[in-house]
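notes to self, project folder thing:

trying the whole complex as one job this time. last attempt i did each chain seperately and stitching them together was a nightmare. three parts in total, labels are on each line so i dont mix them up again. if this works i'll redo the older ones the same way
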Amino acid sequence: MTTQATATPVRGTGTRRNTAAWLQEYGVYAAVAALLLFNAFFTEYFLTADNLRTQLIQVAPIVIVALGMALVIGTEGVDLSVGSAMALAAALLPLYLGYGLVPALLVALLAGAVVGLVNGALVSVVGLQPIVATLALFVGGRGFALVLADGQLKQIVNPDLLALGTGSLLGIPLVVLIAGVLALAVAFLVHRTTFGRQVVAIGGNRRAAALAGLPVKRVLTGVYVLCGVLAALAGVLATSRLTASDPSSLGTLMELSAITAVVVGGTPLSGGSVRVLGTVAGALLMQLLRATLVKHDLPDSTAQIAQAAIIIAAVYVARERRSR
Amino acid sequence: MAPPEAAPFEAAPPEAATPATSGAPSSAAPTVLEAHGVGKRFPGVVALDDVSFSLRAGEVHALVGENGAGKSTLIKALTGVHRPDSGELLLSGRPVRFARPSEAQAAGISTIYQEVNLVPLMSVARNIFLGREPRNRFGLIDFPRMHAEAAALLGGFGVTVDPRRPLDSLGIGTQQMVALARAVSVEAHVVVMDEPTSSLEPREVETLFRIIDDLRRRDIAVVYVSHRMDELYRICDRVTVLRDGRHIHTGPIGGLDRMRLVSMMLGREISEVRRHGMTSFGSEGHDVARKPVLTATGLARRHQLDDVSLELHPGEVLGLGGLLGSGRSETAKALAGALALDAGQVRVDGAPLGRFSSAGAIRAGISLLPEDRKAEGIVPGLSVRENIVLAALPRLSRLGIVSRARQDRVVDIFMKRLRIKASSPEQKVGELSGGNQQKVLLARWLCLEPKVLLLDEPTRGIDVGAKAEVQALIDELAQEGLAVLLISSDIEELVEGSDRIVVLRSGGTVGELVGENVSEDALLAALADHTTPTQDSPNPADTTTGAPVPAAEPSAAGSAPAQASPPADPAPAAEEDPR
Amino acid sequence: MNPTPSLTAPATGVKGSAPGGTAGSDRPASGLSAAERVLSLVQRQGVLAVLLLVVVIASFAYPTFAGLDNARGVLIQASFLAIVALGMTLVIITGGIDLSVGSVFALGGVLAAWASQWGLLPALLVPLVVCGAIGTLNGLLIARAGMAPFIVTLASLLGARGLLLAFTDEGATTYLVPKGSAFAELGQGSIGGFGHPILVALVLLGIGGLVLQRTSFGQTLFAVGGSGDAATLMGLPVARAKVTVYLLSGLLAGFAGALNAARLSSGVTIIGTGMELDAIAAVVIGGTLLVGGAGSISGTLWGVLLLAVIQNLINQIGSLNSSYQSVVSGGFLILVVVAQRYVSRSRRTL
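result (full assembly):
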């Protein structure tokens, strides 16, 4: 089969494929709407400002990490080290808070950038598979964070940092506001900038992108750096919410939550598209699901099993689409 | 999962054992494998259309055809990789169906693929015996025996290599020999070889031929796919020609004229010269500037390119002639910086291109429309708009932010100029027809305003209307002063579209057709020329029986300056050729 | 790009005339360049050398380290990881990955402790059945549905953890192994001073090594990981091999969990987090290619022991944070993976 590339693509006609396509495109929004509707009728005190606030605050760090993850997945990659980057940021904060909030923040974000740079270099320059490349920091990053923190949980007393976690602007919690602004920024990045379009093109057809003269290595590295920085920022925000730096457990399984949000949001693991709004909705969906189950006195275990099932279903649906 | 209707696979031992002769088997030799009216469709393309093929015991049967002829599909249908949509396979006269490769192998059909299909990290012996390792009495693999058998097997081929070595530590040629050893060590009645010599050194080719002779003596049938004319004439008994998924010809190769074979492969009749019959190229030549915009000298890459030199002038369409495997696509890729070279230089406007990279070539004004539209061209999930501006993004952006207005302007201009039919610029390219995808790619390159446009099979697999439009566009672009390199396996297109044709064979430039000689006859003659420089010790015994090659068309062969010499242009670059 | 010039290729190539027989081709070193030999030696035995070096230095530096009691302690700690890493080795050789082993390990332990009230056999069978089912599900989703191994097993990491929580009233219930039962003896007893888990692990690794190196199934695993397309074209049962390795990985992780529960006398719910990372690190440090196609059980054993020794040393030093261990494994991981990449690249361009 050297030249059957001449085939004009035939779109899937089976209803099963169309269903799968619809599910991947709009399923997440429909599900979010359905959950909200369900709760509006069957859950007491769900659609209250307080509860929604709580839900949004809880989901904000996941959204921020998932935004970076969406970019990485858009290039047909994956970043398993985001949880470690969060822990690293959390561990560094108390060490530098003495110099003020801004320097500490910068150091924390820089750590995320370094994590991303290592990942990106391993992927683009050394040419490792993304899973393999990010595994090393997945293993070692948290250990390093614990070493930095001497294995201890440290209370945060810096009022500026605490204000970041508890403050609000016009009634909207700062954390939520930051996540929202970042989502808009990433959407702008993806749709309106050279970099964003190159990310999607490289994920869609890397050979074609290289032949079209795109700076493939630079873009790939940049994507992992962005993902690392966003994860570090999420670590900072989560730490300020917790009022403690807890590198041993902060961000564990975050890679899973983030990948879930991205995949449930309709971004295929095979790359070539980044759905920012879908990713935000995906994170919201998982959060609402958990909250709904908890409010109906279903245990955490059920939530976990449901989450696992949804991940499998989402990836399966995406796979249906791809194999056409 | 095995189809119940499949016949038992104990293929009968070849009956009526013909006396072991090294020559062609008599037509009385039993037919071992037969395909009757086999059809196979892939989405949007008919790969095989009612093709019949029969293989006799002890014959070497050449299977030839250009790209897209259906050779690979036929082989895959014979070996269980594809299941044909229609028709039937007969093995020793009994109908069989193979659901997967293992069933074909069990039935005695083994295959050597062009890309060595072995496991690189495993040892030579393990590769040969994978799936049927010799066991000792504890049911465990008997490695000493396996190594001894592997060494003996390879030794029989004249290959001395430690069977414990990992396969990927060997040269490609030796790996190919290991694949061959695997193929013949199973009790095979049929061995299919898909371009077995494409990565072999001349010496290794000789070994291969000895092995094939040996197979022939053992009454094993060989299907031999190759683009190298000399090999076909030297080793094969019969030939089957496929074109566009259809069966064209089957017969003894000995009496078949070489020109005739090439013309059947390309679908052009000898002396059927119809200028401006079917294509949409203008009749006038172009105003060609004196000074070349692109000069390539001594391009070389192991196994692919061997001393390719050419010049490209503004305002001309230079055709790159050559059969499949001659290095024409590789040449285009090398010029576009997409293929690393071992030697050679590319100059644009006299300035040498530095490190080979696509980005560098694009900056220098070279654009390549790649051959494989799907794998190397379009980004199927992106819109028409984004595919068009992909390479031009940095030029349409300010501070990294894409200017929507400028983008729209460019997209609008090119969608109109190339008459790209899409529901809107937002439609995904993957949903367009092949012709429109090709136009989108052309637009991607044209909006960079290149100096040199390399077109690798620009009209393959697109409908007639789009084809005509693309051809007219090529003409127009050259008239506007662009330098165009045209590669096409459509010989009519090549002849009518080109001002000049450089002929490649075995990865090197072997001649050039200019002026009156840009004709189909001359090109066919040049392509069929049998003097292959890489062959160092041809065996005269086999070749003399057939192939009275250039004699059949003395006038054409004589008039074409298709001597084995690079174009003798007194360009300054040519003098710097290290050779 | 090409450190070893292609001059080596013709030396191994085809001889012009057939010498007949196997003459002169029996020496393993024939034609292997010195660089190749060093590389393959480092790849196969590098960990062992590092392990020995660390042990020798540590024995001099910390007298408590060299004691027999300490050695027994290290080995028993390592034995559970070794069993899990055995399954992981098989999975990684096929080019996959199993991130669910930590959860499955914990689940196996809880199920075994719960079932141990009915005797030894249920205590072993229940975890094996459940964990085997999880492994099979992983395998089917990966091999038949063509989903990415990391995401499937990441989901089953979550799912197995959820099952475990559901089974223990959200972690509130801890099942205890009856004192003096045969099951408890399995985990706590010893022969010649070496705990049963150590011996069990060694036997399993031995069998695993034999299966991997000396059976057709083992060869198939290498082929699947080395080149899935080639394996399919050679007619090997690719999908079946994949399902089998995930099944085995689940079984082994569940069994290791059961053994651990027997040793601890209870099904500890918070155990096993991050164990998948230790297992992967041990396997890769042991020279198994993370992209699949090459590896060995012995290497995995040395990798496991190296991690255990380093952990033990960090404890010996006392002043060091125990998290140094994962820093070290992470560091090793990068080194090994990058080195493997360059080795395979230089070989391919030969």
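what i see at first glance: The mean pLDDT of chain C is 83.
need to look closer tmrw
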